[in-house]
């Protein structure tokens, strides 16, 4: 048993368990001002209706990708042209191909007896973009799969490795990021990958340390849209210290006066459904006076939602080692080695 792998698995399990019990809640750091630690986050009046510019503060990796003016219209046109094209080999023909600049790795693979698969590309399929895959967690896999964790993708005829991000599958213009692959709902997986036109089947695998790949999720290709906005949410929590009708003194959300004034315009909510805002800071140790639409309860918790846009990492790797066959490990124990009492 690998102790390092066991500790990493236990840590990932507790993170998933904590996220399930307290979704997106983070602790405000004591040694760093919150306005510095969360300077890339912003508040939203409404996650559904508040505007978010999809062209704002794009990363440098977006200069390396291709974007369609209308991906669906281009897909229909290219597939219609491919279906109407009568050139090419028919079924049952024997064809001789002359290929130049063949890498040595391909020749070594052919000489070892492995089949060589040749695929013709449609227009734009040699370009990179942000691909979105709609997948469902496979019931045979129960290990927590964290966002930005390296996975092996089987997308159509392509196989590659990448670190994707997960998000909810909704019809809105903004989509909440998921920290873990959910087992009970379809999830959208976003990754930098070569352009492929749907319908295309998708398989997601996770590679173990010994080279064996476990099936994680199955699904299909959803779309190619670099402007799809995926927002990461964090929740700052505080506790009511003194309650006086609709106003309350809240502590433990911030620990200095400057942070309170910085986040003063952001709306507050509670786990019991109350809504309010920060009225003023009290003292210099993070106490603040807040006003709500109704009286709080002493066991309630005050929350503040903050959001920032996240993007996949450029970790596309077309080289995937061959998958090792799965085998069941059987351990035999000699009768002489047993300690009988």
UniProtKB/TrEMBL annotation:
<dbReference type="Pfam" id="PF04950">
    <property type="entry name" value="RIBIOP_C"/>
</dbReference>
<dbReference type="InterPro" id="IPR007034">
    <property type="entry name" value="BMS1_TSR1_C"/>
</dbReference>
<dbReference type="InterPro" id="IPR039761">
    <property type="entry name" value="Bms1/Tsr1"/>
</dbReference>
<protein>
    <recommendedName>
        <fullName>Pre-rRNA-processing protein TSR1 homolog</fullName>
    </recommendedName>
</protein>
<feature type="domain" description="Ribosome biogenesis protein BMS1/TSR1 C-terminal">
    <location>
        <begin position="25"/>
        <end position="310"/>
    </location>
</feature>
<comment type="function">
    <text>Required during maturation of the 40S ribosomal subunit in the nucleolus.</text>
</comment>
């Amino acid at each position: 048993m690998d102790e390092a792998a066991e500790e990493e698995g236990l840590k990932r399990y507790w993170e998933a368990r904590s996220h399930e019990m307290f979704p997106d809640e983070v602790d405000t750091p004591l040694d760093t001002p919150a306005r510095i630690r969360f300077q890339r986050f912003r508040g939203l009046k409404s996650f559904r209706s508040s505007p978010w510019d999809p062209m704002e503060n794009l990363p440098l990796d977006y200069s390396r990708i291709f974007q369609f003016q209308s991906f669906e219209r281009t897909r229909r046109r290219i597939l219609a042209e491919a279906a109407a094209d009568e050139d090419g080999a028919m079924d049952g023909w024997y064809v001789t191909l002359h290929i130049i600049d063949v890498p040595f790795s391909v020749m070594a693979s052919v000489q070892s007896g492995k089949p060589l698969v040749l695929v013709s590309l449609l227009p734009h399929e040699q370009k990179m973009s942000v691909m979105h895959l709609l997948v469902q967690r496979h019931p045979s896999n129960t290990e927590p799969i964290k966002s930005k964790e390296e996975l092996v993708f089987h997308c159509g005829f392509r196989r590659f490795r990448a670190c994707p991000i997960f998000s909810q599958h909704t019809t809105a213009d903004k989509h909440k990021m998921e920290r873990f692959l959910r087992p009970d709902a379809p999830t959208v997986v976003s990754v930098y990958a070569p352009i492929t036109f749907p319908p295309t089947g998708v398989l997601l695998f996770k590679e173990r340390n010994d080279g064996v790949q476990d099936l994680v999720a199955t699904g299909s290709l959803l779309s190619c849209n670099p402007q799809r906005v995926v927002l990461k949410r964090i929740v700052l929590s505080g506790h009511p210290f003194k309650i006086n009708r609709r106003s309350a003194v809240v502590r433990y959300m911030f620990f200095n006066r400057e942070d309170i004034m910085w986040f003063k315009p952001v709306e507050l909510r509670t786990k019991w459904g109350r809504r309010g805002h920060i009225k003023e800071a009290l003292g210099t140790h993070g106490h603040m006076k807040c006003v709500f639409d109704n009286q709080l309860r002493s066991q309630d918790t005050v929350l503040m939602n903050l959001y920032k846009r996240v993007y996949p990492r450029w970790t596309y790797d077309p080289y995937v080692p061959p998958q090792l066959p799965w085998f069941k490990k059987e351990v035999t124990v000699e009768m002489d080695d047993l300690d009988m009492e």
